[in-house]
Amino acid sequence: MSDLNMAVVAANGKAGSAIVHEAVRRGINVTALVRHKNTTEAQHTLRQDLFDLTAADLKPFGVVVDAFGVFKLEDLPEHMTSLKHLCDALTGLSTRLLVVGGAGSLYLNPEHTQELKDTPDFPREAYPLAKIMSQSLEQLRLRSDVTWTYLSPAADFRADGPRTGKYLLRGEEYSTNERGESSISYADYAIGLVDEAESAAHPFQRISLIGQ
């Protein structure tokens, strides 16, 4: 059994459920932070709207995972407001914040001036979400009052992909595996995220995870 106490915001979502599953299988004590009934394997449930979470709610946890996601155009600004709310609630606490990020903000050059989302081949339908998530990351970079790590998945983030048990840990720049692919399953991404939760190896950094 692990002595880590983890909370997962939006645990009922696809990414959140995969992270809960991976954490529980390792013996981590997991609390699902959800608005409705907990449908995951988490051992505990806190039914609370994200925007109502307080420092008192989050203080008991060593790690809080932000797996919040909305996709309707009119709801996209909630990516920024929800992340700000979590950071404000965690200010001054020892609790670490791990954020399930996006791939669109990965850089394409060493100068970090061009992002994947700004390339001609980037799907136009995905651009509004990628843009707001990029802006959220930039706001997160300004926070030194909460210990955060932002984890970008590969460009092809596969909800129904298999769990291979392997992944490649990369940095701020877009990358591919030896086959020239940038893809990862939710299950393998969850492995990388829970590894980071246990190791605390990349505070105040954005890292990326791709499948082998």
How does this structure look, described?
With 212 residues, this protein is α/β, with parallel strands linked by helices. The mean pLDDT is 97. α3 links the parallel β4 and β5. The chain has an eight-stranded mixed sheet with strand order 3-2-1-4-5-6-10-8, sandwiched between helices. A two-stranded parallel ribbon has the order 7-9. The protein has one domain: Rossmann fold (3-Layer(aba) Sandwich), CATH 3.40.50.720. The radius of gyration is 16 Å and the shape is globular.
CATH homologous superfamily classification? NAD(P)-binding Rossmann-like Domain
Q: How many helices in DSSP terms?
A: 5
Strand order of the largest sheet: 3-2-1-4-5-6-10-8
Helix fraction?
25-40%
Kindly estimate the percentage of residues that lie in beta strands according to DSSP: 15-25%
Protein topology:
Blueprint: E1 5-9, H1 14-25, E2 29-34, E3 44-47, H2 55-58, E4 63-66, H3 78-90, E5 96-100, H4 127-141, E6 147-153, E7 156-158, E8 168-170, E9 183-185, H5 186-199, E10 205-210
Parallel strand pairs: 1-2, 1-4, 2-3, 4-5, 5-6, 6-10, 7-9
Antiparallel strand pairs: 8-10
Helix pairs in contact: 1-5, 3-4
Organism: Bifidobacterium actinocoloniiforme DSM 22766
Domain NAD(P)-binding: 11-192
Pfam family, one: NAD_binding_10
Keywords:
eight-stranded mixed β-sheet; two-stranded parallel sheet; globular; alpha/beta; 5 helices; single chain; Polyketide_Oxido-like; 212 residues; Rossmann fold
